[in-house]
Structure formats: C-alpha cells, structure tokens
Design brief:
20 helices, alpha+beta, 3 domains, Alpha-Beta Plaits, about 15% strand, 6-stranded mixed sheet, 4-stranded antiparallel sheet
C-alpha cells in the first residue's frame, strides 16, 4: 500500500447548487431538490466504499464538506474511474444537476505541506474545469418538444399524478422526493428526538407547511423571511491547513457544528403553529445556509445562528491544526434577510437575498480592514443586511449614495435595533408619516416631521427611548466631532457624510416594526 502523499487526489465540488435547488417557483420541488442533495451527500461515502475497484479505506477520505470533498486513490486508472463515477452518479440521482471532479497527481512532495500544495493545485484545476462547463450551452428544445410546465427548460416527459401537469424528469424526481420524509426534514426530526421531554413534546406530531403561502399565513400573518448566510473568509482558513487529517477534522467540525447551531436556533426561537413548523430548511452546506422562516421569527433566528457561530469559533478552529495562529480573530458570518409575501416569486427572492448577502460581506470586509492583524485577535466581524418587499418586483439599491437607510449593520448593531423593535411600543400612524417623509422628502422636511412626532408623544419613555436609539447610531460629520456629544443633532439623520448624503436609522426601524412581536400580537388581538 502506498503512503498517502504518493496517492492521487480526486477532488469534487457541486456546480451551481442554487440553480439546481431554485430551478422552479415551487416549494415542493425546492424541498425535493434539497432532500436529494442531502441524500446524495450522505450516501456518497458509503457508496464509494462499496465500489470494489476503488479499494477505498476510511483513511483515504481526504475531506467532506457539504457538496464538495476529496478522496485518495493509489493508481491513475482508479482516479479516472472515480472521477467519472462521482459525476455520473450525481447526474443519475439529480437528473439535471452536475458536479465537477478533478484529479491531482502526486508531485513528489512528502513533508507536512504536501496536502496543502495538492489542494492548491486542485482549486486551480477546479476553477478552470468549472469555467469550461459554464461556457457550454444547454441543449435547446426542439419544436416538437413540449417544455416542462414547472421549470420551462427541460422537455416534459411525465404527467404529475396529483396535479396533472406535464413536467420533466428532473422536476418529477424533486416532487417525489419532496413528498417523502427525507433531507433536513428527517434530520430535524432526529434532532428533536434527542431533546428533553418538555421540548420534545412541543415539536411532536408537527411537520412542514405545504407551501410558502401557508407558511406565511400561519397564525394570521402574510410575510415570510428568506435567510441567506455565509461564513466570512472561510476559504483563507482552508488554504492555510497543511495536514490532510486536519483538513478533514476541520471540515467535519464545521459541517456538524453548523447543522446543530441551525437546529438549535430554530428550536429556541420558533414554536409550531397549528401543527406546522414555521420554517423550511433549504440548505446547510458547511457554512453556507438558506432557510425560509415565518417573518416574525426570521430576524431572531438569523441573529441566533450568527452569535452561535461566533461562540463555537474556538471549537471549530482547533480542529484545523497547528498551522493556524493560536491567537487570531473569531469565525464570523454575513447574512441577509428578505421579507416578502408568501406568493412572491422564489427565484427573485433568492436573487435579492444573494445581492444583500454580498453587500453584508462587503460591509464586514470594510469593517475588518480597519484593524491590523494584531487588533483583530479575539474579534468577530459579522454583518447583516435586510430588505422588506411590500409590493411587486423589487431590486437591491446599487447606488449607495442614493439610499437613506442605514443598513447593512454590524451584528451587535442589529442586536440593539432588533431589541428596540421588540420592546418599544410606538404609535403606528405617526411613525409611518415620518418614514414616508424621510424616504421621499428633503432633509429639512424629515427633521421637522420627526421633531413634531416626538413632541406629540404622550409617553415620555417613548421619547427617551427614541432619542437614545438615535444617539446610539449617530455618526459624527467629521472625525474631530466624535467626542462631542452635541455636535450632531439633525434629527432624525444619523449619518450625514461630507458630500451631503444623509441617512437615518428611522427607515430601518419602521420597516422592521411590522415584524415585531408587539405588532404581531396586536394583529392577532384584532382578529
């Protein structure tokens, strides 16, 4: 048997995973696609070990991380066969999904850094292979072919037995899997079975909502929240791991810990409503997450996951081996929450979530880059963005100089804002008038409307709480004013830059108020 540094590395990664999951606007198919991916990932290791031509042992598993992984084999012929097997098995199980497998030859290195060098080569090969795949055009439908009534891309082959639609094999496969107790549905129920008796009783005899409309309408609501979350700078950590076993240990710790964090956050922050779960887990791909959550639970779930990810940082990082500095910054996460009606098109919702996530990541990077490496030790740079879609189609604002809201936020800033949203009882109509003025009027009009509203508040506690919130988020116009507490009182504008652009936390506040527990309870009381 060859030593591991003389073996071939077969590295693989799922292609365009979100295109596969969100190929249609149907939750049944999204649920099924998610379940298929979970099943493929869970069964791949067992299946590849059962293939005798590979002669794979447990020590030959380099790593497994969600939709990616790596195996070590002794001969080139075995490596070629394994790469083909991984790609063909994935296609067989998903029908329309694809995965890319690349082979890295032994390069003679045998020191501690051999695996790090091999993975660097694998990443380069993977990037090239995926770029070539992306250039390949999909096969067009012939005039005599009928397009699938769900995805509209592949030819229809099957009539759905329940709804009578003519759909493609891929969509039919997703629907069938979505009906079964598979994927995260099965995993969450297994997690519930490990809870204490009191918590277990809450979740017994409950299940997923049939569709997003029903999820949104549970307990009288009509909004859902789409959560898109991703770890910050995770690739840099992987690039610095030298030993194969450390790479595997870190990948396993990340995947298992994040899954427990997500399940734990949902248990702690949510409650079943009318026998249904107020959420739908779509993806837990290592540090890459996607969930639908009933609107009033969406922000608390996102914040809880982010805090738990930071708090479990040391336990995850210690699995990465000795090459990472013992004193370093904590793991952090960026997130986006999109609030929309349950009938809002899912692919559009996902696109908005991804755009907001990029904005949150940029905010986290800009914040992180203000500190030296030494100053970052022990800190976490998590950031979050959100958007409320109350009408039809919407898009993310590209020109930041034109926006008047304050988001995205650092995690602790959103903690403070959400705490205010949850606990403050503010008059709805006056707040909405100020919101409209700040969003569409001139700066002076916004100031006058805010002062008028605050002056008319009968409860002095409300006045003080609003002033406290504004003071907390107020930024000085110039750096020399930072210590002068009276240098900035242009209510409600909490951020006026030197170019004259102005923003206010008031817009973010009012948009979130409709998802507070107070607002939800008031709606329920009036029904």
């Amino acid at each position: 048997m060859k030593p591991e540094h003389e073996k071939y590395l077969v590295s693989f990664d799922t292609d365009r995973i979100k295109d596969y999951i969100y190929a249609t606007n149907s939750l049944k198919e999204i649920r099924g696609a998610s379940a298929i991916l979970v099943e493929v990932e869970d069964e791949r290791l067992k299946d590849v070990k059962s293939e005798k031509q590979f002669n794979l042992k447990d020590d030959d598993v380099a790593f497994a991380a969600g939709g990616s992984g790596g195996f070590l084999v002794e001969e080139r012929e075995q490596a070629d066969q394994m790469a083909q097997w991984i790609e063909s098995e994935f296609r067989k199980n998903t029908v329309s999904g694809s995965i890319t497998a690349v082979i890295v030859e032994p390069n003679g290195g045998q020191g501690e850094g051999w695996f790090k060098a091999r993975m660097a080569t694998a990443r380069q090969k993977m990037q090239r292979a995926k770029a070539i795949k992306a250039q390949l055009a999909s096969v067009p439908l012939e005039p005599y072919m009928r397009p699938c009534m769900s995805c509209g891309v592949l030819p229809a082959e099957i009539r759905d037995k329940d709804e009578g639609e003519l759909i493609c094999e891929a969509c039919a496969n997703k629907r069938n899997k979505g009906r079964d107790e598979r994927g995260y549905r099965k995993k969450f129920k297994k997690y519930v079975s490990t809870l204490d008796a009191a918590k277990k009783a809450i979740w017994q005899n409950t299940d997923l909502a049939p569709d997003l409309n029903q999820l949104a309408e549970l307990d009288g609501g009509n909004y859902i929240g789409f959560l898109s979350m991703d770890g910050n700078s995770m690739g840099q950590i992987l690039e610095n791991i030298e030993r194969r076993q450390d790479y595997r240990n870190y990948s396993d710790a990340l995947r298992n810990t994040v899954e427990k964090i997500v399940f734990g956050a949902l248990i702690e922050q949510c409650r079943p409503i009318n026998g249904y779960w107020p959420f739908e887990i779509v993806l837990i791909g290592g540090d890459d997450l996607a969930l639908f959550v009933k609107a009033e639970y969406a922000m608390p779930v996102a914040l809880k996951i982010m805090h738990q990810f930071e708090e479990n940082s040391d336990d995850i990082l210690k699995q990465a081996g000795k090459n990472l500095p013992k004193e370093r910054e904590k793991l952090s996460m960026s997130a986006s929450v999109v609030f929309a009606h349950g009938n809002f098109p899912i692919p559009a919702l996902v696109d908005i979530g991804e755009a907001l996530l990029k904005r949150a990541k940029k905010h986290a990077d800009d914040w992180r880059n203000q500190f030296s490496e030494k100053e970052r030790v022990g800190q976490a740079f998590s950031a979050i963005d959100f958007q409320v879609i109350s009408g039809g189609m919407a898009q993310v604002d590209e020109d930041e100089s034109q926006v008047r809201y304050e988001r995205p936020f650092k995690l602790r800033e959103m903690d403070d804002l959400w705490d205010f949203v949850q606990n403050a009882k503010m008059p709805t109509s006056p707040m909405q008038r100020v919101y409209d003025t700040c969003l569409n009027g001139e700066r002076g009009e916004g100031t006058m409307a805010t002062l008028q509203m605050i002056g008319r508040l009968r409860d002095s506690t409300q006045q003080q709480e609003l002033k406290k919130l504004f003071n907390q988020f107020t930024k000085p116009i110039i750096e020399s004013q930072r210590e002068d507490k009276n240098a900035y009182k242009f209510w409600p504008w909490t951020n006026i830059d030197q170019e004259g652009h102005y923003r206010t936390i008031f817009i973010d506040l009012v948009e979130l108020l409709k998802f507070s527990k107070n607002n939800h309870e008031e709606k329920r009381d009036h029904e």
